[in-house]
Amino acid sequence: MDTVGLLKGMLEIYSPSGKEESLSAFLREELINLGFSNVHQDEVRNIYGEVGEGSPAILLCGHMDTVPGWISVKIEDGKIHGRGAVDAKSSLAAMIIAAYQLGVEGLVGKVIVAGVVDEERSAKGIRRLIHKGMKIDCAIFGEPSGISNITFAYKGRLAIKIRCRSEVGHIGAQHLYSNVIEEGYGLWNRLKEVFGVRRSLHGVFYSATPCLIGMRSSRSSDSMPDKCLLTVDVRLPPTFRSADGIDLVRKVISEYGREKPNISVDLVVTDRVEPFVANRNTTLMKALAKSIEEVLGRPPRFIKKTGTGDMNIFGHETGVPVATYGPGDGCLSHTKNEFLNCDDYIASIEVYKRAVRSIILEHEKRESL
After folding, report:
1. Before 88, cis peptide (omega within 30)?
2. Are 103 and 169 in the same domain?
3. In terms of domains, do 146 and 161 share one?
Protein backbone atom coordinates (compact mmCIF):
# COMPACT_ATOMS: atom_id res chain seq x y z
CA MET A 1 0.00 0.00 0.00
CA ASP A 2 1.01 3.66 -0.37
CA THR A 3 2.29 4.36 3.12
CA VAL A 4 3.07 8.05 2.57
CA GLY A 5 -0.18 8.41 0.64
CA LEU A 6 -2.21 7.42 3.71
CA LEU A 7 -0.52 10.09 5.81
CA LYS A 8 -0.94 12.68 3.08
CA GLY A 9 -4.65 11.88 2.84
CA MET A 10 -5.02 12.30 6.60
CA LEU A 11 -3.18 15.62 6.57
CA GLU A 12 -5.42 16.94 3.81
CA ILE A 13 -8.43 16.57 6.12
CA TYR A 14 -8.46 19.50 8.54
CA SER A 15 -9.35 18.12 11.98
CA PRO A 16 -8.84 20.54 14.88
CA SER A 17 -10.26 19.40 18.21
CA GLY A 18 -14.03 19.11 18.00
CA LYS A 19 -14.01 18.71 14.21
CA GLU A 20 -12.67 15.18 13.72
CA GLU A 21 -15.79 13.73 12.04
CA SER A 22 -14.47 13.82 8.47
CA LEU A 23 -11.15 12.22 9.39
CA SER A 24 -12.90 9.58 11.47
CA ALA A 25 -15.12 8.69 8.50
CA PHE A 26 -12.08 8.62 6.18
CA LEU A 27 -10.20 6.25 8.48
CA ARG A 28 -13.24 4.03 8.88
CA GLU A 29 -13.26 3.42 5.13
CA GLU A 30 -9.49 2.94 5.05
CA LEU A 31 -9.56 0.36 7.83
CA ILE A 32 -12.39 -1.55 6.17
CA ASN A 33 -10.58 -1.53 2.83
CA LEU A 34 -7.40 -2.79 4.51
CA GLY A 35 -9.28 -5.75 5.98
CA PHE A 36 -9.37 -4.73 9.63
CA SER A 37 -12.03 -6.47 11.69
CA ASN A 38 -14.52 -4.96 14.15
CA VAL A 39 -14.16 -1.52 12.55
CA HIS A 40 -16.46 0.93 14.29
CA GLN A 41 -16.90 4.42 15.69
CA ASP A 42 -18.08 5.12 19.21
CA GLU A 43 -20.28 7.92 20.52
CA VAL A 44 -17.55 10.58 20.43
CA ARG A 45 -16.27 9.51 16.95
CA ASN A 46 -13.23 7.58 18.10
CA ILE A 47 -12.41 5.04 15.38
CA TYR A 48 -11.34 1.45 16.10
CA GLY A 49 -10.10 -1.49 14.06
CA GLU A 50 -8.53 -4.85 14.92
CA VAL A 51 -6.05 -7.25 13.39
CA GLY A 52 -5.69 -10.81 14.67
CA GLU A 53 -7.37 -12.32 17.69
CA GLY A 54 -6.73 -13.79 21.09
CA SER A 55 -3.95 -12.64 23.37
CA PRO A 56 -1.96 -10.65 24.02
CA ALA A 57 -4.12 -7.68 23.06
CA ILE A 58 -1.92 -4.70 22.19
CA LEU A 59 -3.41 -1.22 21.83
CA LEU A 60 -1.84 1.19 19.33
CA CYS A 61 -3.48 4.53 20.06
CA GLY A 62 -3.06 7.85 18.28
CA HIS A 63 -5.16 10.99 18.17
CA MET A 64 -6.94 12.40 15.15
CA ASP A 65 -7.27 15.99 16.31
CA THR A 66 -4.77 18.80 15.92
CA VAL A 67 -4.46 22.33 17.19
CA PRO A 68 -6.17 24.91 14.94
CA GLY A 69 -4.33 26.46 12.01
CA TRP A 70 -4.22 25.09 8.48
CA ILE A 71 -0.85 24.31 6.92
CA SER A 72 -0.70 23.52 3.19
CA VAL A 73 0.07 19.86 2.60
CA LYS A 74 3.08 19.17 0.39
CA ILE A 75 5.91 16.69 -0.01
CA GLU A 76 9.22 18.38 -0.73
CA ASP A 77 12.87 17.33 -0.32
CA GLY A 78 11.92 14.15 1.49
CA LYS A 79 9.70 15.98 3.98
CA ILE A 80 5.93 16.05 4.33
CA HIS A 81 4.37 19.29 5.54
CA GLY A 82 0.94 19.80 7.09
CA ARG A 83 -0.92 20.36 10.32
CA GLY A 84 -0.54 17.10 12.24
CA ALA A 85 2.53 15.89 10.34
CA VAL A 86 4.32 15.78 13.69
CA ASP A 87 1.52 15.99 16.26
CA ALA A 88 0.40 13.38 15.65
CA LYS A 89 -1.26 12.04 12.51
CA SER A 90 2.05 10.50 11.41
CA SER A 91 2.10 8.23 14.46
CA LEU A 92 -1.49 7.12 13.88
CA ALA A 93 -0.88 6.48 10.18
CA ALA A 94 2.26 4.46 10.99
CA MET A 95 0.32 2.42 13.54
CA ILE A 96 -2.39 1.62 11.00
CA ILE A 97 0.14 0.50 8.41
CA ALA A 98 2.14 -1.53 10.94
CA ALA A 99 -0.99 -3.36 12.09
CA TYR A 100 -2.06 -4.01 8.50
CA GLN A 101 1.34 -5.44 7.56
CA LEU A 102 1.41 -7.61 10.68
CA GLY A 103 -1.96 -8.99 9.69
CA VAL A 104 -0.75 -9.80 6.19
CA GLU A 105 2.28 -11.54 7.65
CA GLY A 106 0.09 -13.72 9.89
CA LEU A 107 -0.22 -12.11 13.30
CA VAL A 108 -0.60 -14.27 16.39
CA GLY A 109 -2.39 -12.23 19.04
CA LYS A 110 -4.47 -9.10 18.61
CA VAL A 111 -3.62 -5.51 17.71
CA ILE A 112 -6.27 -2.87 18.36
CA VAL A 113 -5.72 0.41 16.53
CA ALA A 114 -7.59 3.39 17.95
CA GLY A 115 -7.80 6.93 16.59
CA VAL A 116 -9.15 9.09 19.38
CA VAL A 117 -10.57 12.60 19.44
CA ASP A 118 -9.93 15.66 21.56
CA GLU A 119 -6.42 14.91 22.83
CA GLU A 120 -5.39 18.53 22.33
CA ARG A 121 -8.30 19.80 24.41
CA SER A 122 -10.14 17.92 27.18
CA ALA A 123 -9.24 14.29 26.28
CA LYS A 124 -12.81 13.04 25.97
CA GLY A 125 -11.63 10.52 23.37
CA ILE A 126 -9.28 8.56 25.62
CA ARG A 127 -11.72 8.80 28.50
CA ARG A 128 -14.40 7.21 26.31
CA LEU A 129 -11.98 4.48 25.22
CA ILE A 130 -11.26 3.65 28.86
CA HIS A 131 -15.00 3.56 29.58
CA LYS A 132 -15.43 0.84 26.94
CA GLY A 133 -13.53 -1.53 29.22
CA MET A 134 -11.59 -3.33 26.48
CA LYS A 135 -9.24 -6.11 27.55
CA ILE A 136 -5.78 -4.70 26.80
CA ASP A 137 -2.45 -6.15 27.90
CA CYS A 138 -0.28 -3.16 26.96
CA ALA A 139 -0.54 0.08 25.01
CA ILE A 140 1.65 2.27 22.86
CA PHE A 141 0.58 5.89 22.39
CA GLY A 142 1.55 7.76 19.26
CA GLU A 143 3.17 11.13 19.94
CA PRO A 144 6.35 12.76 18.58
CA SER A 145 9.06 11.31 20.79
CA GLY A 146 11.54 11.41 17.94
CA ILE A 147 12.43 8.33 15.96
CA SER A 148 15.11 7.12 18.40
CA ASN A 149 13.44 8.08 21.69
CA ILE A 150 10.82 6.58 23.98
CA THR A 151 8.73 8.91 26.13
CA PHE A 152 8.16 7.35 29.55
CA ALA A 153 7.09 10.38 31.59
CA TYR A 154 4.83 13.39 31.19
CA LYS A 155 3.99 16.27 33.46
CA GLY A 156 0.40 16.70 34.57
CA ARG A 157 -1.88 19.61 33.82
CA LEU A 158 -4.20 21.83 35.81
CA ALA A 159 -6.47 24.19 33.87
CA ILE A 160 -8.11 26.92 35.95
CA LYS A 161 -10.10 30.11 35.58
CA ILE A 162 -9.89 32.87 38.18
CA ARG A 163 -12.74 35.40 38.22
CA CYS A 164 -12.10 38.76 39.86
CA ARG A 165 -14.84 41.30 40.59
CA SER A 166 -14.87 44.78 42.09
CA GLU A 167 -17.40 47.52 42.74
CA VAL A 168 -18.66 49.54 39.79
CA GLY A 169 -17.42 53.13 39.75
CA HIS A 170 -17.08 56.08 37.41
CA ILE A 171 -13.77 56.33 35.56
CA GLY A 172 -13.51 59.91 36.72
CA ALA A 173 -13.52 58.62 40.31
CA GLN A 174 -10.78 56.07 39.72
CA HIS A 175 -9.00 57.26 42.83
CA LEU A 176 -11.90 55.83 44.84
CA TYR A 177 -12.23 52.43 43.11
CA SER A 178 -10.00 49.48 42.26
CA ASN A 179 -9.14 48.72 38.65
CA VAL A 180 -9.93 45.00 38.57
CA ILE A 181 -7.64 44.43 35.57
CA GLU A 182 -4.67 45.71 37.52
CA GLU A 183 -5.76 43.75 40.60
CA GLY A 184 -6.19 40.57 38.52
CA TYR A 185 -2.73 40.95 37.08
CA GLY A 186 -1.37 41.58 40.56
CA LEU A 187 -2.94 38.31 41.67
CA TRP A 188 -1.33 36.52 38.71
CA ASN A 189 2.08 37.92 39.65
CA ARG A 190 1.59 36.70 43.20
CA LEU A 191 0.63 33.25 41.92
CA LYS A 192 3.64 33.12 39.63
CA GLU A 193 5.93 34.17 42.48
CA VAL A 194 4.58 31.49 44.84
CA PHE A 195 5.13 28.73 42.28
CA GLY A 196 8.52 30.22 41.44
CA VAL A 197 9.93 29.90 44.96
CA ARG A 198 8.99 26.21 44.85
CA ARG A 199 10.92 25.60 41.62
CA SER A 200 12.98 22.42 41.83
CA LEU A 201 16.77 22.47 41.61
CA HIS A 202 16.43 19.45 39.30
CA GLY A 203 14.95 21.50 36.45
CA VAL A 204 11.68 22.37 34.77
CA PHE A 205 10.32 18.80 34.57
CA TYR A 206 10.36 18.56 38.35
CA SER A 207 8.86 22.03 38.86
CA ALA A 208 5.24 23.19 38.85
CA THR A 209 5.11 25.81 36.11
CA PRO A 210 2.12 28.17 35.72
CA CYS A 211 1.37 30.08 32.52
CA LEU A 212 -1.15 32.90 32.04
CA ILE A 213 -2.80 31.95 28.73
CA GLY A 214 -5.75 34.33 28.73
CA MET A 215 -7.02 37.53 30.31
CA ARG A 216 -10.39 39.11 29.59
CA SER A 217 -12.13 42.04 31.25
CA SER A 218 -15.46 43.79 31.07
CA ARG A 219 -17.14 46.76 32.62
CA SER A 220 -20.67 47.93 33.34
CA SER A 221 -21.47 50.81 30.94
CA ASP A 222 -18.88 53.61 30.92
CA SER A 223 -17.30 52.70 34.22
CA MET A 224 -14.12 51.35 35.75
CA PRO A 225 -13.42 47.72 34.76
CA ASP A 226 -15.25 45.61 37.34
CA LYS A 227 -14.83 42.06 35.98
CA CYS A 228 -11.67 40.23 34.99
CA LEU A 229 -11.18 36.59 34.00
CA LEU A 230 -7.72 34.97 34.15
CA THR A 231 -7.14 31.66 32.38
CA VAL A 232 -4.15 29.79 33.77
CA ASP A 233 -2.42 26.54 32.78
CA VAL A 234 -0.25 24.86 35.40
CA ARG A 235 2.08 22.00 34.43
CA LEU A 236 2.63 19.59 37.31
CA PRO A 237 5.75 17.50 38.10
CA PRO A 238 5.49 13.87 39.28
CA THR A 239 5.71 14.90 42.94
CA PHE A 240 2.90 17.44 42.62
CA ARG A 241 -0.65 16.13 42.26
CA SER A 242 -3.47 18.22 40.85
CA ALA A 243 -5.03 18.47 44.32
CA ASP A 244 -1.77 19.98 45.58
CA GLY A 245 -1.88 22.57 42.82
CA ILE A 246 -5.49 23.47 43.56
CA ASP A 247 -4.74 23.83 47.27
CA LEU A 248 -1.80 26.13 46.55
CA VAL A 249 -3.82 28.36 44.20
CA ARG A 250 -6.65 28.59 46.73
CA LYS A 251 -4.17 29.57 49.43
CA VAL A 252 -2.79 32.38 47.26
CA ILE A 253 -6.31 33.59 46.43
CA SER A 254 -7.30 33.52 50.10
CA GLU A 255 -4.27 35.54 51.18
CA TYR A 256 -4.78 38.00 48.35
CA GLY A 257 -8.44 38.39 49.32
CA ARG A 258 -7.53 39.33 52.89
CA GLU A 259 -5.22 42.03 51.54
CA LYS A 260 -7.79 43.27 49.00
CA PRO A 261 -11.20 43.07 50.71
CA ASN A 262 -12.79 45.17 47.95
CA ILE A 263 -11.99 42.44 45.37
CA SER A 264 -13.91 39.16 45.24
CA VAL A 265 -12.13 36.19 43.64
CA ASP A 266 -13.54 32.82 42.55
CA LEU A 267 -11.64 29.77 41.32
CA VAL A 268 -13.00 27.31 38.73
CA VAL A 269 -11.06 24.17 37.80
CA THR A 270 -11.85 23.32 34.16
CA ASP A 271 -9.54 20.32 33.69
CA ARG A 272 -6.98 18.25 35.57
CA VAL A 273 -4.61 15.53 34.36
CA GLU A 274 -2.25 13.86 36.78
CA PRO A 275 1.49 13.58 36.00
CA PHE A 276 2.56 10.11 34.98
CA VAL A 277 5.80 8.13 34.97
CA ALA A 278 5.64 4.75 33.23
CA ASN A 279 7.53 1.71 34.46
CA ARG A 280 10.59 1.32 32.23
CA ASN A 281 11.15 -2.31 33.27
CA THR A 282 8.27 -3.89 31.34
CA THR A 283 8.11 -6.25 28.38
CA LEU A 284 6.62 -3.39 26.37
CA MET A 285 9.46 -0.96 27.11
CA LYS A 286 12.10 -3.60 26.44
CA ALA A 287 10.41 -4.55 23.17
CA LEU A 288 10.31 -0.94 21.97
CA ALA A 289 13.92 -0.36 22.95
CA LYS A 290 15.06 -3.53 21.18
CA SER A 291 13.10 -2.61 18.05
CA ILE A 292 14.57 0.89 17.87
CA GLU A 293 18.09 -0.49 18.19
CA GLU A 294 17.43 -3.08 15.47
CA VAL A 295 15.96 -0.55 13.05
CA LEU A 296 18.28 2.40 13.71
CA GLY A 297 21.44 0.66 14.85
CA ARG A 298 21.64 2.56 18.14
CA PRO A 299 19.98 2.23 21.54
CA PRO A 300 17.12 4.61 22.32
CA ARG A 301 17.00 7.42 24.81
CA PHE A 302 14.24 7.38 27.41
CA ILE A 303 12.87 10.91 27.70
CA LYS A 304 10.60 12.98 29.93
CA LYS A 305 8.32 15.61 28.41
CA THR A 306 6.98 18.79 29.94
CA GLY A 307 3.69 18.46 28.08
CA THR A 308 0.96 15.94 28.79
CA GLY A 309 -0.69 13.19 26.79
CA ASP A 310 -3.38 10.52 26.68
CA MET A 311 -0.87 8.09 28.22
CA ASN A 312 -1.25 9.96 31.52
CA ILE A 313 -4.95 9.30 31.75
CA PHE A 314 -4.91 5.74 30.42
CA GLY A 315 -1.93 4.71 32.54
CA HIS A 316 -3.45 6.07 35.75
CA GLU A 317 -6.91 4.65 35.13
CA THR A 318 -5.97 1.15 33.94
CA GLY A 319 -2.58 0.26 35.39
CA VAL A 320 -1.73 -1.33 32.03
CA PRO A 321 1.93 -1.15 30.87
CA VAL A 322 2.27 1.87 28.56
CA ALA A 323 4.81 3.80 26.52
CA THR A 324 4.71 6.68 24.07
CA TYR A 325 6.56 6.56 20.77
CA GLY A 326 6.30 8.23 17.40
CA PRO A 327 8.24 10.01 14.66
CA GLY A 328 8.76 13.75 14.53
CA ASP A 329 10.54 16.57 16.29
CA GLY A 330 8.31 17.59 19.19
CA CYS A 331 9.65 21.15 18.97
CA LEU A 332 7.68 21.51 15.71
CA SER A 333 4.38 20.56 17.37
CA HIS A 334 1.77 23.34 17.24
CA THR A 335 4.05 25.55 15.12
CA LYS A 336 3.43 27.11 11.71
CA ASN A 337 6.25 25.04 10.22
CA GLU A 338 5.16 21.50 11.02
CA PHE A 339 6.87 18.88 8.89
CA LEU A 340 8.20 15.34 9.12
CA ASN A 341 11.03 13.49 7.42
CA CYS A 342 9.41 10.74 5.34
CA ASP A 343 12.28 8.36 6.12
CA ASP A 344 11.58 8.70 9.85
CA TYR A 345 7.92 7.97 9.23
CA ILE A 346 8.78 4.80 7.30
CA ALA A 347 11.25 3.72 9.98
CA SER A 348 8.64 4.17 12.72
CA ILE A 349 6.37 1.66 10.99
CA GLU A 350 9.09 -0.98 11.27
CA VAL A 351 9.70 -0.08 14.92
CA TYR A 352 6.02 -0.56 15.76
CA LYS A 353 5.95 -3.90 13.91
CA ARG A 354 9.04 -5.29 15.57
CA ALA A 355 7.88 -4.16 19.00
CA VAL A 356 4.53 -5.92 18.58
CA ARG A 357 6.23 -9.11 17.38
CA SER A 358 8.62 -9.02 20.33
CA ILE A 359 5.78 -8.55 22.83
CA ILE A 360 3.89 -11.48 21.32
CA LEU A 361 6.98 -13.69 21.32
CA GLU A 362 7.61 -12.95 24.99
CA HIS A 363 3.96 -13.70 25.75
CA GLU A 364 4.23 -17.07 24.00
CA LYS A 365 7.37 -17.93 26.00
CA ARG A 366 5.60 -17.21 29.27
CA GLU A 367 2.53 -19.19 28.23
CA SER A 368 4.65 -22.23 27.36
CA LEU A 369 6.27 -22.40 30.80
Report:
1. yes
2. no
3. no
Residues 145 and 18 in one domain: yes
Domain of 215? 156-273
Domain boundary among 258, 273, 288: 273
Give the model confidence (pLDDT) of 140-181 as tens digits: 999 999 999 999 999 999 999 999 988 765 454 455 466 888
pLDDT in tens, 347-358: 999 999 999 999
pTM of whole model > 0.70?
yes
Pairwise CA distance, residues 15 & 32, whole Å: 21
Instruction: Provide the b/e sequence for 162-182 (b: ≥16 CB within 10 Å).
Output: bebbbeebeeeeeeebbbbbe
Asked whether the beta carbons of 156 and 242 are under 8 A apart, the reply is yes
Q: What is the DSSP string of 307-369?
A: S--HHHHHHHHH---EEE--SS-GGGTTSSS-EEEHHHHHHHHHHHHHHHHHHHHHHHHHHH-
Strands 227-236 and 156-165: antiparallel
| Terminal-to-terminal C-alpha distance of the chain | 39
By C-alpha distance, which of 335, 325, 347 is closest to 4?
A: 347
Q: Is 318 exposed, middle or buried (0-12, 13-18, 19+ CB in 10 A)?
A: middle
Q: Are 140 and 60 in contact (CB under 8 A)?
A: yes
Q: What's the rounded Cα separation, in Å, for the pair 121 and 206?
A: 23
Query: ∠ CA 134-136-140 to the nearest 5 degrees?
Result: 120
Residue 227 pairs in a beta bridge with 165, 218
User: Cα torsion for 177, 179, 183, 185, to the nearest 10°?
Assistant: -170
User: What is the C-alpha separation between 111 and 99, in angstroms, rounded?
Assistant: 7
List the single range of 67-71, 124-128, 164-168, 182-186 with lowest mean pLDDT: 164-168
Tally of structural domains, the chain:
2
